[in-house]
Amino acid sequence: MDKKALRKKYKTLRSQLSDNQIDELSLAIANRLAKMDIWDKTYYHLFLPIETQKEIDTEYLLQILAGKDKEIVISKSDFETTSMSHYLLTDNTKIKKNEYGIPEPVSGLPVPVEMIDVVFVPLLAYDRSGNRIGYGKGFYDKFLSECKNDVIKIGLSYFEPEEIIDDVFETDVKLDYCITPKSILKFKI
Questions:
Q1: 2, 57, 86, 116: which has the fewest C-beta neighbours closer than 10 Å?
Q2: What is the spatial distance between Cα 39 and Cα 34, in angstroms, rounded to a whole number?
Q3: For 79-98, how does the pLDDT look when each residue is reduced to its tens digit (9 = 90+)?
Q4: Model's pTM, two decimal places?
Q5: Which residues constitute the signal peptide according to the record (predicted)?
């Protein structure tokens, strides 16, 4: 399938999930992540979910990171440049939803992209080769291409992978892993 068809398919599948299912699936994903060998790093980039899009609730992952005393980085999107700026999440960070319903820091301590060790990546769909599909604006592909070469890119999904995404671009950045409620998939890059 191509990206357009996959976006439609997975938005529909997500829309059918109840709040209880989202909570259970998000907890299962966090529990899988807790068992991974990725916790020796310092800076972890986390997305805050767009509730109206029924994205994975990252609150459980946030608790794991805080419990392990990790530096948590969140982003603010600039829709004019399709770029993201990154900030340290602290007790004083004020979060506000932007016009697209994305929770973002109002301000804070900037974190240079080269300091980020692990990125938890939102997605709509992905394939067995680690290619992912987001909403199509390219924010994460741009951000991930700016990260250091050894950054660990971990997609989070309610669903298992598609066999192949037909229209992958050279600028699309592949995942290293994708975590679902049922599995940890590792991709050969």
A1: 2
A2: 8
A3: 999 899 999 999 999 999 99
A4: 0.95
A5: none
